[in-house]
Design goal:
The protein is of the alpha+beta class and about 375 residues long. The protein contains eleven helices and 18 strands. A six-stranded mixed beta sheet has the order 1-2-6-3-7-16, sandwiched between helices. Strands 4-5-18-17 form a four-stranded antiparallel beta sheet. Strands 11-13-9-14 form a four-stranded antiparallel beta sheet, with helices on one face. Keywords: Carboxypeptidase, Hydrolase, Metal-binding, Protease.
Length: about 375
C-alpha cells in the first residue's frame, strides 16, 4: 500500500493543482460546484456513488459511498470551499517551490480531498474491503459556518462509530483532538439624529448606547475557562456633527465546553435587554452556531487508535486543541468518536502564503488508508 501511494505522488499533485486552480470561495457557488464535479467523476470511476445535494445559495454538498456499501461505520468529512473570492487564482495560481506547494486553498483543504480519494484507491489496490465501510460528506460552506450542510453532516453521522475530519494537520503534524465552539451575534442600535452643535439635547446617540454594550460584552470574556467575547466590527453615524441615529456591532463568541453555551447566550441577551441611553432601542440577532469539540473519552480512544497506526508506519503523532471552529464539532456533539486534522501538513491557511508540505501528502494518505483499515477490522 505504501509503495502504491508513493508512486502516485505526482498524480496527486496534478489533481491538487487542478482543484486549487478553480476559484471556490464560499460565496462562489459556480466554482464550488466545479470542484464537486471533478471529484464526483473521480469517485465514480472507483465504483462509488455520488449523491449531489443541490443548494440554491451555496455550493452543492456531496454524499459519497461505495456501490457495495451496506452500513458504513466511518464518516469522513471535508469541504470544497475556500475563504478566497473569485479572481484569486488568476492572481496567484498553484505553484511548487522546493518541497512546498502554494495556492489558494492548497492545504485548507484541497490537498485533503485528494488524500481521501487516493487513500480509498490504495485500499482498493490491495483488495482491502474497508473502502466499503466509509461514507463521505463533502460540503461547500464550511468556511462560513456550514449553514446549509450542518444538518446534513449531523444526519449522515447519526449512528456512526467514527468520524475522521480532513482539516489540515497543524504545522508540527499534530492531530486535532479538541476545538472551541462559538457563535456570531449582531447588535443593531437605533437612536435619534440631531445636529450636535445646534440642538444636541434633542438627539439620542446610538453610538453612545453601543459603547456601553461593547464594554459589557467584553467583560464576559473569561480566558481561564476558555470563553472569549470579541466585538470585531463596529459601524455607525452619518456625520461628525450629527448625533448618531444608527450603530451596529458584530460579535464573535468562543467557548470550550458545551455547557458554557446556554449560560453565555443568556448573559448576552440580558445585557442587550437594557438600554443605557434613554430613547435608544437595541435589537440582538444571531446564535451559537457551533458546539465545541471536547476531548472526551470517545475521542481520546480514537486518537489512541490513530496514534497506534502512526507508530506502525513510522509517524509519531501528537495532538492539540485549537480555537478555530470546524465540522468536527457537529460529529463530536452528535456522539460520534471524532478526530480532526487528518489532512497533510501545511501552514498559513487563509492567507496569501498558504502552503502544503509535499512530503507529508503521501505520508498522511497512508495514515488515513491504514486508519480506515484498522477501524474496519
Amino acid at each position: 500500500m505504501k509503495h502504491f501511494i508513493q508512486n502516485k505522488q505526482e498524480e496527486m499533485l496534478q489533481l491538487i493543482e487542478e482543484l486549487v486552480n478553480i476559484d471556490s470561495g464560499s460565496y462562489y457557488k459556480e466554482g464550488i460546484d466545479r470542484v464537486g464535479l471533478v471529484l464526483q467523476q473521480k469517485f465514480e470511476r472507483l465504483g462509488f456513488t455520488v449523491e449531489v445535494k443541490e443548494e440554491a445559495d451555496y455550493g452543492n454538498n456531496l454524499v459519497i459511498k461505495h456501490k457495495n456499501a451496506v452500513d458504513p461505520r466511518i464518516i469522513i468529512c471535508g469541504h470544497m470551499d475556500t475563504v478566497f473570492p473569485e479572481g484569486t487564482v488568476a492572481e496567484r495560481p498553484f505553484r511548487v517551490e522546493g518541497t512546498r506547494a502554494y495556492g489558494p486553498g492548497v492545504v485548507d483543504m484541497k490537498s485533503s480531498l485528494v488524500e481521501v480519494l487516493y487513500a480509498l484507491m490504495a485500499l482498493q489496490s490491495e483488495d482491502v474491503k474497508a473502502y466499503e465501510n466509509v461514507l463521505l460528506v463533502l460540503n461547500g460552506d464550511e468556511e462560513i459556518g456550514s449553514p446549509s450542510s450542518r444538518s446534513l453532516i449531523e444526519d449522515q453521522s447519526n449512528g456512526k462509530d467514527y468520524a475522521l475530519i480532513m482539516e489540515p494537520a497543524r504545522k508540527d503534524g499534530s492531530l486535532v483532538s479538541a476545538r472551541r465552539g462559538g457563535g456570531r451575534y449582531t447588535l443593531v442600535v437605533k437612536g435619534k439624529a440631531a445636529h450636535s452643535g445646534i440642538e444636541p439635547e434633542k438627539g439620542r446617540s446610538a453610538i453612545e448606547a453601543l459603547a456601553y454594550k461593547i464594554i459589557q460584552l467584553h467583560q464576559l470574556t473569561d480566558h481561564e475557562n476558555g470563553i472569549s467575547v470579541n466585538v470585531g466590527i463596529i459601524e455607525g453615524g452619518s456625520a461628525v456633527n450629527t448625533v448618531s441615529q444608527n450603530a451596529v456591532a458584530h460579535v464573535d463568541i468562543r467557548i470550550t465546553e458545551l455547557e458554557q453555551a446556554a449560560m453565555l447566550e443568556q448573559q448576552i441577551k440580558s445585557i442587550c435587554s437594557v438600554c443605557d441611553v434613554p430613547g435608544t432601542k437595541i435589537t440582538l440577532e444571531g446564535e451559537m452556531n457551533r458546539p465545541p469539540m471536547e476531548k472526551n473519552e470517545r475521542n481520546e480512544e480514537l486518537l489512541h487508535v490513530i496514534q497506534g497506526v502512526g507508530k506502525e508506519i513510522g509517524v509519531k503523532l501528537k495532538d492539540t486543541s485549537t480555537g478555530g471552529g470546524g465540522d468536527a464539532s457537529f460529529t463530536s456533539a452528535n456522539g460520534v468518536a471524532t478526530i480532526d486534522g487528518l489532512g497533510p501538513v501545511g501552514g498559513d491557511a487563509h492567507s496569501e502564503k498558504e502552503y502544503l508540505e509535499i512530503p507529508t501528502l503521501t505520508e498522511r494518505t497512508l495514515l488515513l488508508a491504514k486508519t480506515i483499515q484498522k477501524l474496519s477490522e
